Amino acid sequence: MEVESSSLGVLPGFRFHSTEEELVGYYLTRKVCSSQEIDVEPQGNDEDQTEWYFFSHKDKKYPTGTRTNRATNAGFWKATGRDKAVVSKNRIIGMRKTLEC
């Protein structure tokens, strides 16, 4: 039986499962610094996923206000719970916000 890999060389069954520290310290840092991104389309059964990670532009709901606009063409999110610090080497490198759609 032959196993085919995708165009990125990732084998079937591979799942993205990084830590919060890796998401902020590696992926977000490179995104902010305009490093080249890899656009990977998720595959598999989406209903099995309980957590999703997104990078999105932050803009204001009103031009002179402080509220964040969390609306998109496909819907919106609302913040739930408290923000959680993402820590690396005893230093806060980001904050995790829990959102509900």
TrEMBL record:
Residues 10-101 form the NAC domain. Pfam families: NAM. GO terms for biological process: regulation of DNA-templated transcription. InterPro entries: NAC-dom (IPR003441), NAC_dom_sf (IPR036093). GO terms for molecular function: DNA binding. Keywords: DNA-binding, Nucleus, Transcription, Transcription regulation. PANTHER family: OS04G0691300 PROTEIN, PROTEIN CUP-SHAPED COTYLEDON 2-RELATED. This is NAC domain protein. It comes from Zostera marina.
